[in-house]
Structure prediction request, 226 residues.
Amino acid sequence: MKKLLMFSLMLAWAVPASATVYTDATGDTFPGVGGGGILDISSVEVTNTATDITFAITLSADIVATDWGKYMVIIDTAAGGDTAGNGWGRPISMTSGAEYWIGSWVDSGNGAELHSYSGAWGLTEATYNAAPDNDISISTSTNTATITTTMANLGLTPGDSFDFDVFSSGGGGGDGAIDSLGNAGEQVADWGDSSDASPQTYVTVPEPATICLLAIGGILAIRRRS
Ligand SMILES: [Ca+2]
Ligand SMILES: [Ca+2]
Ligand SMILES: [Ca+2]
Prediction:
């Protein structure tokens, strides 16, 4: 029994923050969009720890070399929310009801904002703000933009799940979702077209203590059966 407990504890500590990778079709932006693939999402990896959540957005081209793309995440964590708009006033909706919006850019030294919705959209965190209103970060490496904010900023505790979609766009205030992670087809036919999210579900990883208990429970169940 002691050995089993030791094994379970070791297993719990050995478990890294597990990643869920969502893939999108490539070549699914409208003809003539430009940018050579910097607006064409190929995959998004979501990970979380007990305190932080990270979206690593990978495009079909080098977003550091060609850096005018904007990358956004729309998030539905609870009942209600905005069914028609988003934190940047872009022609993008999430009919299931969005509570949060991450808007990011990879030029001018990179930056990101987190907006939250409760009857109206408001800026919650920004990379250019002073503490404590700067709990969001972005880094870029060739084809990938990696955005991290806190679980608490999204009202999440480990074990919660939520729906989201990721979009690419341009720098014009009226530019829509040129690509959607959840839509393998062409999301829009032109820059200013309106479109809706195709929600993906992410289940946040529980805290290590919970994983440990689950592991012990699993092993005991297997022993009982054998
Ligand atoms: Ca794509
Ligand atoms: Ca909602
Ligand atoms: Ca797509």
Residues 1-17+207-226 form one domain. The radius of gyration is 19 Å. The chain has two helices and 14 strands. The mean pLDDT is 91.
